[in-house]
From TrEMBL:
InterPro entries: P-loop_NTPase (IPR027417), Thymidylate_kin-like_dom (IPR039430). The gene is tmk. One of its GO terms (biological process) is dTDP biosynthetic process. It holds the Pfam family Thymidylate_kin. Belongs to the thymidylate kinase family. Keywords: ATP-binding, Kinase, Nucleotide-binding, Transferase. SUPFAM superfamilies: P-loop containing nucleoside triphosphate hydrolases. This is Thymidylate kinase. It comes from Longimycelium tulufanense. GO terms for cellular component: cytosol. Residues 7-159 form the Thymidylate kinase-like domain. It comes from the Bacteria.
Length: 213
């Protein structure tokens, strides 16, 4: 059985770049690695509804914190059988965002912290009720909010399909989300968390040592 490793962080933190580096590093160790990213835009109807809502195409749906959280969770529920198959066939399954993103952004939108009602509700929904695979480790790619925002703006200007959504343009939300992520990491929510500095560059060998075999 493989290990489920999740990369979390703000929009623009550099999660995809870190995923590339970790994939290469795991491969150099002879480990079988596969990757997935959430939401699964273009692959799952729930994810596509999320994208439509975030870009204002579904009326006031985006205003419902719990409604959006259910869509994100249903995307993972639909992916659960494939994730379990991945874990049987690989040593490492590397995810760009997972349940912790849902917890962090929902709590931040409600001005709650990592120990608030929303995070407890979300854990019950995704882990207990939907029974999605539980991570073995999280990597929190921490960057200052202004750095993440600048990177997201640059990405929007250079990639035609990466227009920023309603969450990404809200710097106040991003700042509150960063605080919730810190709380989740401090509490070891669902699995151990490894916090790394994404502003100056991640020491990938050191991170691998922390993640273990």
């Amino acid at each position: 059985m493989g290990r489920l490793v999740v990369i979390e962080g703000l929009d623009g933190a550099g999660k995809r770049t870190l995923a590339d580096a970790l994939t290469a590093a795991f491969g150099e160790r002879g480990l079988r690695v596969t990757r997935r990213a959430f939401p699964r835009y273009g692959q799952d109807i729930h994810a596509d509804l999320v994208r439509d809502a975030l870009h204002g195409r579904l009326g006031d749906l985006v205003d419902s914190v719990y409604g959006m959280a259910v869509l994100y969770a249903l995307d993972r529920r639909a992916a659960a059988p494939a994730l379990r198959a991945d874990l049987l066939a690989h040593d490492v399954v590397l995810l760009d965002r997972y349940a912790a993103s849902n917890a962090a952004y929902g709590a931040a939108r409600l001005h709650q912290d990592a120990r608030g009602e929303f995070v407890a509700w979300l854990r019950h929904l995704e882990i207990e009720r939907f029974a999605v695979p539980v991570p073995d480790a999280h990597v929190l790619l921490r960057v200052p909010v202004e750095v993440a925002a600048h990177r997201a703006e640059q990405r929007e200007s250079t990639e035609a399909d990466r227009a920023r959504d309603a969450y990404e343009i809200d710097n106040g939300l991003q700042a509150r989300c960063a605080a919730v992520y810190d709380g989740l990491a401090a509490d070891g929510w669902l699995a151990p968390w490894h916090v790394v500095d994404g502003a100056t560059g991640v020491d990938v060998p050191a991170l691998l040592a922390r993640l273990g075999p």
